[in-house]
Design the sequence.
């Protein structure tokens, strides 16, 4: 997997969409946490979004696998 360079977040469509209207300080905090999650899971931004969307389609009692992994 190609390593995501979070310093170049504007070049990653998913990150740009997510962070475009976020204040700079909040953006820095989000990127720090995002970097940790990427390193832990090994997922790309698109894979992470796909995983979150798939979980949202589950019955509410079946949700939480993503949070458990964190």
Sequence:
């Amino acid at each position: 997997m190609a390593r995501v360079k979070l310093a170049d977040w504007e070049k990653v469509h998913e990150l740009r969409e997510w962070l475009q209207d976020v204040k700079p300080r909040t953006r820095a905090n989000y990127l720090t946490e995002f970097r940790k999650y990427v390193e832990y899971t090994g997922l790309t931004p698109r894979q992470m979004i796909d995983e979150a969307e798939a979980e949202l389609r589950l019955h509410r009692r079946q949700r939480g696998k993503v949070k458990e992994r964190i």
Remarks:
- The radius of gyration is 13 Å.
- DSSP finds four helices and no strands in the chain.
- Residues 6 and 35 are 7 Å apart (CA to CA).
